[in-house]
Amino acid sequence: MALDDRKKLIMQAIVEDYINTAEPVGSRSISKKPELNLSAATIRNEMGDLEEMGLLVQPHTSAGRVPSTSGYRLYVDSLMEKYEMTAAEIAEIKQAACKKTQELEKIVRDVAAAFSSLSGLPVIGMLPGTETGVVKNIKVVKIDNDKAMLIVSDKSGIIKNKLLNLHQDISDEFADQLSEILNQNLAGLTISKINLANIMEVQSVIGKNFEILASVMELVHEAVMEIDTKQIFVEGLSNILRFPEYGNVEKVKELFDAVENRENLSKIIMEAVPSGQAKVLIGEEIPVPELKHNSVVLAPYRVSDQIMGVLGVLGPARMDYSKVISALEFFTKQLSDVLRKDFGERQKLIGRGDE
Amino acid sequence: MALDDRKKLIMQAIVEDYINTAEPVGSRSISKKPELNLSAATIRNEMGDLEEMGLLVQPHTSAGRVPSTSGYRLYVDSLMEKYEMTAAEIAEIKQAACKKTQELEKIVRDVAAAFSSLSGLPVIGMLPGTETGVVKNIKVVKIDNDKAMLIVSDKSGIIKNKLLNLHQDISDEFADQLSEILNQNLAGLTISKINLANIMEVQSVIGKNFEILASVMELVHEAVMEIDTKQIFVEGLSNILRFPEYGNVEKVKELFDAVENRENLSKIIMEAVPSGQAKVLIGEEIPVPELKHNSVVLAPYRVSDQIMGVLGVLGPARMDYSKVISALEFFTKQLSDVLRKDFGERQKLIGRGDE
DNA sequence: ATTAGCACTCTCCTTTGCTGAGTGCTAACA
DNA sequence: TGTTAGCACTCAGCAAAGGAGAGTGCTAAT
Fold it and tell me: pTM here?
């Protein structure tokens, strides 16, 4: 059966109606739309066809129709019109994205929170992982008699720091010495390559003159490991309560349980990485069975063409894809801009130096 | 009407029954308890009295009774037996509290998360504020061509750091110079006393030789302000979904809305500060009307007798006070221990130096 | 090809009646 | 005088029954 223009138009109307009302769509309500000058009976015939094609499903015999996963997929891929953001919305986003200078993690989380409250949907996000990260600089700074701070920056300027509690007094010179040793041995490696064996080696190079070194190296290892674990977060999860589909607590609980599991989130976010642009996962396409009635829109953010992390929106399958996709793309672009300004600028300096 | 021993016993049985079942307690179920050898009719008479005294309320004519706020209050203040934690529980808590060396914020949040998953209740917490904090040391460390890190530590060793993005190349010497200037002028002040006027003054002392100073000082101000804002957090909020009282989404939404408001949390936590020990707020005693069906147990944690912050448990009014109070006290004690080890030890060193 | 009409289906809401838990009161009992 | 058994009464909660409304598929007419 061919999917002619009229069918497409009807399909689009159904999906959009369902997105707005969350109620199964009947033939009458579609026939009322002025752009389709057709009777309910005609619509019924067409809807029958669309159901046969697997684009619609009927919750029960005498109810209206609801889009199936492939129905949404069709809508997202070819029916949907691009949502044009209003000037007001753009202004609001820009304002939210215009964050004060601070650490990467905070910026990303803040932007995610702003996006969540703006979109009224939960936002999931991932902070930069390790595959991309090459350690450029390690520094140990004495900040107190028995405390030092370990500061690690990677080539795109991402910074992670960790307090080293040495339980033993150290000197400034010792910290400097330590910085030098660590830099000589670890700078240039990707973070994921810095493992315990590696660190042990460093330790053996230095020799075991200082007893304190063993515990320091252990802490360094811990610190690097901590950088290693990709950080995944969720902001504004309670926004989901606004939707009628979460009208009973069972559903809410199921969702919360699924989302509190890092593994699940990680699986979802990994789906976005290869694509490099906004990606929509609908219903069963999400690699977490519990979320089969939801959809996720994912988009990566970058610093100088390098994917740094991912931001995603989680909502019911009937979410307003058009709007969410536009907004998410805009947000990740803004985020990329902010990050480039704060963390990427040095690229130019380096570039200049190399020329 | 006097509250004789039998009434107390009955009252205790009612509260505990209700804590366990979440169902209004009838006379029959109480009369079955072996420790009270009384018939249902007698219990009914007593319950009538207790209701008249305002300790119990009846949801409707033919239902059992439920403790009122003053009923819970009586229970907590004089009826309740102290819960003795099992060795297994203690071991689990110790294990959870035995955190790796890391920054204060992370420790506290991790402990709160562990407590939440252990108690099955949401945990709210506050990180150290500013009234207590006296800046002891400020350090600016160059970590890249155009970036530096500002590290602030206070007298109890709490550390807060912030990335300074200078958008301009600086030298190590400049960073050192800056550290010295900041230290000379700001060390010794409480964080809350470091305001813009103050910083401006520093700036005027240095003179305006370097144009870059203006922006640095602005960033310093921002950083200090950021330290200033008390940080309040909630862990494991979704635990609340386990309770039958949150069986409908309206209730859940109301709670989430109330809890997402920082002002509310701040109000609640402030209640704990003067007391200095575990404090229970029941029902309407909570300064947030939306939480009138809940209770909060709060306890401060300390470093060397100085209150550093607060941890609290939020749950339905019928929570197991005895258990929650014991566990919370134990947890905050453990937290204090960990913090003392990581942040407080230097106190001794300083003390030694002064002697 | 489109549409009006009709019989049919099924959910949802309301009504009705019943059951069971719980109460208050009274009278008998120790 | 305190305690208890008994009884009539109340009320939430559940299930069954009935009706309304929305929607469908099919057929016949346009």
Answer: 0.82
Q: Write out chain B residues lying below 8 Å of A257, CB-based.
A: 238
Interval B202-257: pLDDT, tens: 777 666 555 666 667 777 777 666 665 667 899 999 999 999 999 888 889 999 99
B221/A contact by beta carbon, under 8 A: no
Interface test with B, best of A98, A99, A100 (most B CBs within 10 A): A100
Which among A143, A219, A247 has the least Cβ separation from residue B101?
A: A219
pLDDT 10s digits, A264-305: 999 999 888 767 789 999 999 999 999 999 999 999 998 777
Asked if the Cβ of residue A63 lies within 7 A of any atom of strand D, the reply is yes
Q: Where are the beta strands (DSSP E) in A185-242?
A: 232-235
- Using a CB-CB distance cutoff of 8 angstroms, which residues of chain A are in contact with residue B165? 101, 342
pLDDT bin (cut points 50, 70, 90) of residue B325 is very high
DSSP label at residue A99 = P
Yes or no, beta carbons of B260 and A238 under 8 Å apart = yes
In whole angstroms, give the CA distance from residue B67 to residue A341.
Answer: 59
Cα angle at A206 between A205 and A210, to 5 degrees? Answer: 145
Burial of residue A195 (CB within 10 Å: 0-12, 13-18, 19+) is middle
- Between the CA atoms of A124, B230, B343 and B346, what dihedral angle is there, to the nearest 10 degrees? 150
On whether the CB atoms of residues A308 and A125 are closer than 8 A, the answer is no
